[in-house]
Design goal:
The complex is a heterodimer of chains A (about 450) and B (about 290). Chain A has eleven helices and eight strands. Chain A has helices at about 5-30, 50, 60-90, 100-115, 120-180, 185-200, 265-275, 275-300, 355-360, 375-415, 420-450, and strands spanning about 40, 55, 205-210, 215-220, 225, 235-240, 245-250, 255. In chain A, helix 5 (about 120-180) packs antiparallel against helix 7 (about 265-275). Chain A is rod-shaped. The model of chain A has no long low-confidence stretch (mean pLDDT about 90). In chain B, the strands form two sheets. Chain B has a two-stranded antiparallel sheet with strand order 1-2. Chain B has a two-stranded antiparallel sheet with strand order 3-4. In chain B, strand 1 and strand 2 (about 130-135) form a beta hairpin. The chains are: A mainly alpha (about 450), B mainly alpha (about 290). At the A-B interface, helix 3, helix 4, helix 9, helix 10 and helix 11 of A face helix 1, helix 2 and strand 3 of B.
C-alpha cells in the first residue's frame, strides 16, 4: 500500500461524498415536487453511486403496480359517481319534481269527483296533467343530458390518453438512449411514471418493465398501448349504432370496439354510468310514463265527456315503452278543451255524473300493467333505485379514494423525500467530506515528511 | 414507517378537508332540519317518503271531497227540516179546514196560507248549496222542480269517494222526498187540499189527511237517510284525514333530522374541524428550520 494509494482513496471519498451531497440537495429541492422519486445517496463499497453518475431512484415495482390499479379504480368510481349525481337532482322532492307533479295531478282528479261540472276544476286537472308531462320530460332530458355529457367526456378522455401515450413512447426512446450511453435519466423516468399514472386514471393498464429503461404498457393486459420500442397504439372513438360514443383501437390492422374491455379508469366509469344506472333509470322512467298514460287512457276512453262522447285519450298514446317519458303529453283531444275531460259514466246523468271521475281517481291505488305496483309505488321504487345507485357510487368513490391514498402513502414511504432524513445525510456527508480532506492532507503531510527525510 | 414530507402534509390536508366537509354537511342538516333531502341520503327512506307523500296528497283531496259532500248534505238536511215543518203546518191547516163548523171565508183564508206553503215547498225542493241543486241528482245545474211541482231532475243518488275504493252515498233525490208524482205526491196532495178549501168541500179535505201524514213520514224518513249519509261521509273523511295525518308523521320521521341530534352532530363536527386545524398548526419544526 503506497501513500499515493491513500491519497487516491481520499480523493475518491471526497468525490463520492460530493456527489452524495448533490443527490441530497436534489432530494431536498424536490421535497414537494409531484411525482419525484427520491434518489438514494447511499455510498456502496463498490462506490456504485459514482458509476451511476447520481443517486439511484428508490422504486418498489410491486407498489407501483398497485398504485396503477388503485388509480384506475379511483378514477372509475369518481367518474361514475359524478355522472350519476344527476339522478339525485332528478328524483329529489320539490317543485317541478315528478313526485310533486304526480301528487297534484292525482289530487286534481280526486277534486274532479266532487265537481265534475265545474270548468275551473276541469282546467285544474288539465294544467296538472300538463305539469306532469313537463316533469316527465324534464327528468328524461336531464338524464339524457348526463348521458351525452358522458359521451363528451369519453371523447375528451381518449384525446388525453392519446397525447400521454405519445409522450410515454418518446420518453421511452430517450431514456433508453441516455442510459445506454451511461447518462442518468431519473428525471425522465419520473416524468414517465407520472404520465403512466395519469393514463391509468383514464383506462386500466398493465405495465411491464422490459429492462434497459424500456416498458410496455397494455390496455387491460391485452392490447398494446405503448410497445418497448416506443411504438404507440392510439385509442379512437366512433358513434355507435345506439348513438353512444364507442371506444375502439387498431388491433392487428383492424379497428376493434374495446369499450367493454375498459372496465376501469374514468373512461370505464363513464361507460359504466352511461350504459348502467343512467340507462336503467331512463328505461324505468319510460316504463312509468308508458304505464301511467296507458292506465289513465284506458279508463278515460271508457268515460263520457260533457258533450256525451266517449273514446278520448287523456294522454297522448304511446306506441312503444322506449321514448315514452320524452313524449309524455296531454292528448290533442283534451289539451285546451277542459270540457273534453271524461268524468261521467254515461250520457244520461251529465254534467255532474262523477262516477267516471271516481274510476280515474281509483287508478292511484290500482296496480299498473307492469310490475304490479301503483303509479306512486312505481315512482317511489324508481326514487329508491336512483338513490341507491348514487349512494353506491359515492361509497365506491370514498372507498377507492381511500385505497388509493393508502397505496400512495405506501409509495411515499419508500419514494418520498423526508427533509429531516436528508438534513441528517447532509451533516453525515459534510463530516465525511471533511474527513476525506483530512485524509488527503494527512497523506500529503506523510509524503512531504517522507521527501524531507535527510 | 418511513414518513415523507409529502405524505405528512397530504395527510394533514386530507384530515382538514374531511373535517371541513363533515362540518358543512352537519351544518346543512342542522340548518335545513332535513336528514334526507335527496334520494342518495337514504334511498330506502326517500322511497318510503315518496309513497307517503302520495298518500298524504290523496288523503288531503279525500278530506276536501268529503267536506264538499257534507256541505251538500247539510244543506239538504236543513231544507228537509223546513219541508217537514211546512207539511206539519199544512196538516194542521187541513185538520182545521176539515171541521164542518168552519165558514167558507175562513176556508178561503186557509187556502191562501196553504198556497204559500205549497210555493215554499217548491222552492225548498230547488234548494241550492253553492251552485248545485241538492235534490237534482247528477243534473244539478238545473232546478229539479217546476212551479207546478213536476219533478224534472235526475233520480240518481250521487256518491263521493273520500278514500279510494270507499264510495259513500251523498245525495237524495227530490223525487223520493216529495213522492215522484204519484197520487200521494206532496204537491198533488197540497193542490187537492187547496182545491177543497177553495171549493169549501170539507169532505175532500178530509180525504187528503192520510196523504198529508204519508208525506210527513216520507220527509222524516228522507231526513234520517240524509243523517246517516252525513255520518258515513264523516266516517270516510276521518279515514282520509287519518291517512293524511299518518303520512305527514311518517314523512317527518323519515326525512326530518332530530333537532337535538343534529345540534350535537354540528358541535362534534365543529370540534373535529378545530382539532384538525390545531394539528395542522402543530407540525414540529424540522432540522432545516433550526439551522
Amino acid at each position: 500500500m503506497s501513500i499515493n494509494g491513500i491519497l487516491n482513496t481520499g480523493v475518491k471519498g471526497m468525490v463520492s461524498t460530493q456527489l452524495a451531497t448533490n443527490t441530497t440537495a436534489s432530494n431536498i429541492s424536490n421535497a414537494a415536487t409531484v411525482g419525484y422519486t427520491r434518489r438514494s445517496s447511499n455510498i456502496y463499497p463498490d462506490q456504485s453511486l459514482l458509476n451511476n453518475g447520481g443517486g439511484r431512484r428508490v422504486v418498489e415495482p410491486f407498489i407501483q403496480k398497485r398504485l396503477l390499479n388503485a388509480e384506475s379504480s379511483a378514477g372509475e368510481a369518481k367518474a361514475q359517481s359524478a355522472a350519476l349525481n344527476v339522478l339525485d337532482d332528478v328524483f329529489a322532492e320539490g317543485d317541478g319534481s315528478i313526485g310533486t307533479a304526480l301528487d297534484k295531478f292525482q289530487a286534481a282528479v280526486q277534486n274532479l269527483t266532487t265537481r265534475p261540472d265545474d270548468t275551473a276544476t276541469r282546467q285544474e286537472v288539465l294544467s296538472n296533467a300538463s305539469n306532469l308531462s313537463t316533469a316527465f320530460k324534464n327528468a328524461n332530458a336531464q338524464i339524457e343530458q348526463a348521458r351525452q355529457d358522458s359521451n363528451l367526456r369519453i371523447e375528451q378522455g381518449v384525446n388525453q390518453v392519446n397525447s400521454r401515450l405519445d409522450q410515454i413512447g418518446k420518453l421511452g426512446v430517450q431514456i433508453q438512449q441516455m442510459e445506454t450511453t451511461g447518462q442518468e435519466a431519473s428525471d425522465l423516468r419520473d416524468q414517465r411514471d407520472i404520465l403512466v399514472k395519469e393514463v391509468a386514471s383514464y383506462v386500466p393498464v398493465t405495465l411491464l418493465d422490459q429492462g434497459n429503461g424500456q416498458i410496455s404498457l397494455m390496455l387491460g393486459g391485452a392490447h398494446n398501448l405503448v410497445s418497448p420500442d416506443g411504438q404507440v397504439g392510439h385509442l379512437s372513438t366512433k358513434v355507435g349504432e345506439d348513438g353512444t360514443i364507442r371506444i375502439q383501437k387498431n388491433v392487428a390492422g383492424a379497428m376493434q370496439d374495446v369499450s367493454a374491455q375498459i372496465n376501469g379508469g374514468s373512461l370505464g366509469g363513464e361507460v359504466k354510468a352511461r350504459t348502467g344506472a343512467l340507462a336503467d333509470a331512463q328505461k324505468k322512467l319510460d316504463q312509468l310514463a308508458y304505464d301511467t298514460a296507458g292506465a289513465y287512457n284506458n279508463v278515460h276512453r271508457a268515460n263520457v265527456a260533457l258533450d256525451g262522447q266517449a273514446g278520448r285519450n287523456l294522454f297522448a298514446e304511446q306506441a312503444t315503452v322506449s321514448g315514452s317519458a320524452s313524449a309524455f303529453e296531454v292528448s290533442a283531444d283534451v289539451a285546451g278543451h277542459p270540457e273534453n275531460i271524461a268524468a261521467a259514466l254515461d250520457t244520461t246523468s251529465l254534467p255532474s255524473d262523477n262516477r267516471g271521475a271516481m274510476a280515474l281517481a281509483n287508478i292511484s291505488s290500482a296496480p299498473l300493467a307492469f310490475g304490479g305496483m301503483t303509479v306512486s309505488e312505481a315512482l317511489a321504487s324508481l326514487v329508491g333505485f336512483a338513490g341507491s345507485q348514487v349512494q353506491a357510487a359515492q361509497q365506491q368513490q370514498t372507498f377507492t379514494a381511500g385505497a388509493l391514498e393508502q397505496v400512495q402513502a405506501l409509495q411515499d414511504s419508500t419514494a418520498g423525500v423526508n427533509t429531516d432524513e436528508e438534513m441528517v445525510n447532509l451533516m453525515k456527508y459534510q463530516r465525511a467530506y471533511q474527513a476525506s480532506l483530512k485524509v488527503i492532507s494527512t497523506a500529503d503531510q506523510m509524503l512531504s515528511d517522507l521527501l524531507n527525510i535527510r | 414507517m418511513r414518513v415523507s414530507d409529502n405524505a405528512k402534509f397530504a395527510s394533514i390536508s386530507k384530515n382538514v378537508q374531511k373535517a371541513q366537509s363533515d362540518f358543512v354537511s352537519a351544518q346543512q342538516k342542522a340548518g335545513s332540519g332535513l336528514r334526507v333531502s335527496k334520494p342518495s341520503d337514504d334511498p330506502v327512506a326517500a322511497a318510503q317518503a315518496r309513497r307517503e307523500a302520495s298518500r298524504k296528497a290523496l288523503g288531503e283531496a279525500g278530506v276536501a271531497a268529503a267536506d264538499t259532500a257534507t256541505d251538500q248534505l247539510m244543506g239538504a238536511d236543513t231544507a228537509l227540516g223546513d219541508v217537514y215543518e211546512g207539511l206539519t203546518r199544512a196538516h194542521e191547516l187541513a185538520l182545521a179546514g176539515a171541521t164542518d163548523s168552519m165558514s167558507k171565508e175562513n176556508r178561503s183564508d186557509l187556502a191562501q196560507e196553504m198556497r204559500k206553503i205549497r210555493d215554499q215547498m217548491v222552492s225548498l225542493g230547488n234548494t241550492k248549496v253553492g251552485d248545485k241543486f241538492v235534490f237534482a241528482g247528477y243534473r244539478d245545474q238545473t232546478a229539479p222542480f217546476e212551479a207546478s211541482g213536476n219533478f224534472v231532475g235526475d233520480g240518481s243518488i250521487k256518491e263521493v269517494q273520500p278514500v279510494n275504493g270507499m264510495r259513500v252515498q251523498a245525495s237524495i233525490s227530490g223525487a223520493s222526498v216529495f213522492g215522484n208524482g204519484n197520487s200521494d205526491d206532496a204537491f198533488k196532495t197540497l193542490d187537492a187540499v187547496i182545491a177543497g178549501l177553495e171549493s169549501n168541500d170539507a169532505e175532500a179535505i178530509r180525504g187528503q189527511l192520510s196523504n198529508l201524514q204519508t208525506n210527513q213520514d216520507r220527509v222524516a224518513k228522507s231526513r234520517s237517510i240524509v243523517g246517516s249519509m252525513i255520518d258515513s261521509v264523516e266516517l270516510g273523511r276521518n279515514v282520509a284525514d287519518q291517512q293524511q295525518a299518518r303520512a305527514t308523521t311518517q314523512i317527518a320521521s323519515l326525512t326530518e333530522a332530530d333537532a337535538v341530534q343534529s345540534a350535537l352532530n354540528l358541535m362534534q363536527a365543529k370540534s373535529a374541524l378545530e382539532a384538525a386545524i390545531t394539528v395542522a398548526s402543530q407540525i414540529p419544526q424540522g432540522l432545516a428550520q433550526r439551522g
